[in-house]
């Protein structure tokens, strides 16, 4: 996704979150990342000190790990900020 598409995506996401949720609220992130302890730790560190509940599950063959992260956030901007922080992790897929 190029920069323009990325910004449009986040603007649309913000609008949807404002319409569908009363803030502050609990938000569920789902990520898939190649099974690599360094990458998984990198994502966990992003949510460190937020009170997030992080669940991980390896794929059947063990090549990938899914991360479900539940965290209470103050507004849609905080949700988007975390997505942007996680997007720098190599190979991560946001669901």
- Give the CA-based shape: globular
- The tally of helices reads 3
CATH class: Alpha Beta
Q: What would CATH call the homologous superfamily?
A: ACT domain
User: What is CATH's topology name?
Assistant: Alpha-Beta Plaits
Helix-strand category: alpha+beta
User: What is the typical, i.e. mean, pLDDT?
Assistant: 93
- How much of the sequence is in beta strands? 25-35%
| Cα separation of the termini | 15 Å
Question: What's the number of domains?
Answer: 1
The major beta sheet can be summarized as: 4 strands, antiparallel
- Total number of β-strand segments? 4
Side by side, the strands of the main sheet go 2-3-1-4
Global Rg: 14 Å
Organism: Flagellimonas oceani
InterPro entries: UPF0250_YbeD-like, YbeD-like_sf
Protein name: DUF493 family protein
Layout of secondary structure:
Elements: H1 3-20, E1 25-34, H2 37-46, E2 53-58, E3 64-73, H3 76-86, E4 93-94
Antiparallel strand pairs: 1-3, 1-4, 2-3
Protein name: DUF493 family protein
Organism: Flagellimonas oceani
InterPro entries: UPF0250_YbeD-like (IPR007454), YbeD-like_sf (IPR027471)
């Amino acid at each position: 996704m190029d920069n323009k598409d990325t910004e449009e995506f986040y603007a649309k996401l913000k609008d949807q979150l404002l319409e569908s949720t009363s803030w502050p609220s609990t938000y569920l992130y789902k990520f898939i990342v190649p099974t690599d302890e360094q990458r998984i730790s990198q994502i966990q560190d992003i949510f460190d000190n937020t009170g997030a509940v992080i669940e991980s599950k390896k794929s059947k063959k063990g090549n990938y790990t899914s991360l479900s992260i539940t965290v209470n956030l103050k507004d849609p901007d905080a949700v988007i900020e975390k997505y942007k922080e996680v997007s720098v992790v190599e190979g991560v897929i946001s669901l």
